[in-house]
Each structure stands twice: as C-alpha cells, then as structure tokens.
Fold this sequence. Notes:
The protein contains three helices and five strands. The chain has helices at residues 29-42, 47-68, 109-116, and strands at 17-23, 72-78, 82-89, 119-125, 128-136. Strands 1-2-3-5-4 form a five-stranded antiparallel β-sheet, covered by helices on one side. Helix 1 (29-42) runs antiparallel to helix 2 (47-68) and helix 2 (47-68) runs antiparallel to helix 3. The radius of gyration is 15 Å and the shape is globular. The relative contact order is 0.18.
Amino acid sequence: MASPTSTDDETTRQPLSYRRWTVASSAQLGSLRTQLRCLASLWALPEDCTDRILMIVNELAANAIDHARTTCDITVWHTKSLVRVLVADESPLPPRISPHNINARRGRGLQMVKALANRWGWTARHSGKTVWAAVNCS
C-alpha cells in the first residue's frame, strides 16, 4: 500500500496483473498476439487500446529479433489505467528512430511505437537493454 505522502501515478502503484513471454523467432509472433488479445480481454481493455498494445508488442519484439538478433523477454503489465510493455534483448545498441523516408520499405517501426504509445523509451541493462512503451487505457 502506498504511503499517504506518495504520488498516485503508475510508478508507485503495484501492477494488478502481468504476463511474460520469451520469443526467439518471428514465427512466434502470431501466437504471441493471440495470447495477448486473450489477456487484454480478461483485463477488459477497450478494443482501441488492445489494438495499440498488439501493434507495439509486435513491433518491439520484431525489432529485438531482427536488429538485436537475440531472443527477447516480453513483459506486459496492467495497472488500473495503464498498460506497460517491456521488451528486453541482449544487444547494448540503443533503439534508433530512422529519419522519415516515404520510399523506404522498412524503418517505420519505432515511429509507429512513438505515435501509438503515450510514452516510450529504453533503459540499458548489464547485458543488453529494455525498450518500453506505456499506453493509457482509461
């Protein structure tokens, strides 16, 4: 329980629920999306929020597999009004938003994450990094 002097934001509230997956290849992403849609239903998330989360998870996991070339650990946790997605991989290289190029076949993923999430960022870890996104579902 939070003390009376603490602030009431998502960093001080304990998650009501969470789920973790480890993904090693892009072939697993379809199953991950199916499981995540079921989880969002259990959490009674609005459909628009569910769609945003599915796209964010898919993109961050695909980036970890394609660019970091490692397995990735995905955690999705839900508090009263916030869903946070964390994707950890073994690459120390920071995520990089590519300059907008309408002719590029790839490179728009983090632009999409930035547009869909209320906040996003990354944190270096002792063996890699965690890229995270937060979506307000209230």
